[in-house]
User: Fold this.
Amino acid sequence: MDLINEITKIKKHIGVVPETSNLYDELSAFDNLVFCMQLYGVPRSEWKRQAESLLERFRLSEKRDTPFSKLSRGMKRALTIAAALAHHPSFIFLDEPTTGLDVMSARNLRKMIEGFHDEGVTVFLTTHYLEEAERLCDRVAIIVGGHIVALDTIDGLKTKINKKNMIEVTLGKDNGQLEKKRYEYDDNIESTLQRALRTANGYNLVSVNTIRPSLEDVFVKMSGLSSDIMLTEKGGK
Amino acid sequence: MEMLTGNLRGMYYIALKDLRAYYFKAPNISWGILFPFAFILAFAIRNSGDPRDLVPGLLGLTILFGTSSMEAIVIVFEKRIGALERLILAPISLSALMAGKLMGGMLFGLTVTGVVLAVALMIFGISSINWMLLILALLFSAAAFSTLGAVVSVAVREIFDAQTLANAFRFPMMFLGGVFVPLTSMPSILQVIARFLPLTYSIEMLHIALLGGSLGTALMDLAALAGFSLIMFLLAVRILASRLE
Assistant:
């Protein structure tokens, strides 16, 4: 499709969930979903069935007739995502979907987002939570100043920063002090672990942990941003 | 063809949603009906002339405030809560979006004016009405004031600013548009200014439809209202588009 001349057609295939839940306070959960379907030309025969199915899927059936303004923040978020799915889009854009949600609501929402993948819906997720991106995304683009500075799978990005996986052994000395030792490994974690444990001989073994490069490490390296700039970007300074 | 159907469908459902969500609320309806009556009554008490002469003004005021009051707020309100973004992302053109918004305001204004008209006819007993002209006058007045409200709504960022700007247009129109005093009784400079105001044409056309007058003048009024509506509509769409860039 032509992105410029067929924008109206293209819009039919896209669902957008903005950072702020933007449905209509005065309309009920059910009516909000039906309005979204009406706007996208979903056949009238599907309205009731599709709206009720979405309410059930997002655990909002009991709130069917509750005005949007009376829903909790997590429910508003869930309904906003449901509304974006109401016209069966092929692509869905989620902008900071879990911002401001409590732990359980955020967890539930992440599970739902994982479910889109199985339905063949392509999800574009924009987030400042790198842990969330690492958990939910197949491919990650790092955008700095409006430009994509890196785009790859999570493993691909981690490989690019040349930071190795490590085993960290914490040993307790006789004088009560702790000593940490790190051992890099590629594929063979067992032999590295054996080597690490051999060094513990004669000491108290306090803990053994694996340390893997995180997406945050990748972001810091790829973006080239200092922590000060990152704080400013997030509005923290 | 598919695009046209989509746009018409979008317009219809946006108007329907706006009517349900914003317009048909008790405070709007009571304000829309009582406000013009209160103004006209206050004027009628001190006026010794034929009270039937005030009916065109009463209808003009009702349709002016009925269509533009919420219209001036709805878009700026939806901009603030992010709901306008939802409509912009829908598979309809910006013109269809704006037309849907206008339809909501027009339908509400016409409904309220219908109620006021029925009451006015009962009280004043006007019988020789040119119904076709009256319907056209109400329709085109609704379009003119609704588009004026839309321009205000897309031009500002805050609801308070929208109300202030809308009143800056409406109140001068109310006093210069022939609602209380016939245009011919005004000083010539004010008559010239009044010819730039859509309410003047609305009241004149309503007067001819209800109480008789030149059909040619009524058609000129109709053309003026249609032209004003078209210009305001295009301006509203243009401002909205520029705000999105």
Q: What stands out?
A: Chain B touches chain A through 22 residues (CB under 8 Å). Chain B has a mean pLDDT of 89. Residues 94-124 of chain B form the longest helix (31 residues). Residues 148 and 194 of chain B are 16 Å apart (CA to CA).
